[in-house]
Amino acid sequence: MLKRKKIKPITLGDVTIIDDGKLRKAITAASLGNAMEWFDFGVYGFVAYALGKVFFPGADPSVQMIAALATFSVPFLIRPLGGLFFGMLGDKYGRQKILAITIVIMSISTFCIGLIPSYATIGIWAPILLLLCKMAQGFSVGGEYTGASIFVAEYSPDRKRGFMGSWLDFGSIAGFVLGAGVVVLISTIVGEENFLEWGWRIPFFIALPLGDYWSLLTPCAGGDASVSAARG
């Protein structure tokens, strides 16, 4: 005869209270953070034709584009590692702190891409530095998206968890669209020749102030995801 397992009764400590104000701020901060991450990540793809000429000048134009896009694909291989690493840190130290760290890494690595000298200046070190920056981006994005998804899930009430989580994908698309708009605007203003020479760097430089702006929003998300009724 099978023994029935004793089910532990639910206590007040198992019930969480979601504050609507904190919920809105948390979703906003996570979505904007996701948009900023994917703006930084997507800008590279929109200026790949310029990067091919700057970092792989000796190759055929079609090979330049392939090389630039191949470098773009490397971060996708690194993303799972970032998700695992920052996921464990988030469990230990809290999602909010880890999200802030991933966005700082993304902002700095994106900004550094704009600082890399051309192949004509430092030779083979130019594409090597570019690859390292892209790997840092992939590591960051893997941690950011994983952390943001859990962050939103922890804040969201059961009946709205799917809807609230969908704002992360909205943030991703918004980041890509914003990146495309910035690249088109800058290339239109400075002209194609200047854009290929130095204008392509500007979208990468924008990453740093965007990261600073998001860091100002982070405290608005509040501390813990929920407040236990037992402590309230």
CATH architecture: Up-down Bundle
SSE sequence, one letter per element: EHHHHHHHHHHE
Overall geometry: elongated
Radius of gyration: 21 Å
Biggest sheet: strands, sense, closure? 2 strands, antiparallel
Overview of the molecule:
It is a single chain. The chain is mostly helical and 232 residues long. The chain contains 10 helices and 2 strands; from the N terminus they run βααααααααααβ. It has helices spanning 20-46, 48-55, 61-93, 95-115, 119-122, 125-155, 161-190, 192-197, 202-205, 207-217, and strands at residues 16-17, 227-228. The chain has a two-stranded antiparallel ribbon with strand order 1-2. α1 runs parallel beside α4 (95-115) and α1 runs antiparallel to α6 (125-155). It comes from Salmonella enterica I. This is Proline/glycine betaine transporter. One of its GO terms (cellular component) is plasma membrane. The chain crosses the membrane at residues 41-59, 65-86, 98-116, 167-190.
Brief overview:
InterPro entries: H+-coupled_symporters, MFS_dom, MFS_sugar_transport-like, MFS_trans_sf. It is a multi-pass membrane protein. It contains 10 helices and 2 strands; from the N terminus they run E-H-H-H-H-H-H-H-H-H-H-E.
Keywords:
single chain, 232 residues, mainly alpha, Growth Hormone, Chain: A, two-stranded antiparallel sheet, 10 helices, elongated, disordered C terminus
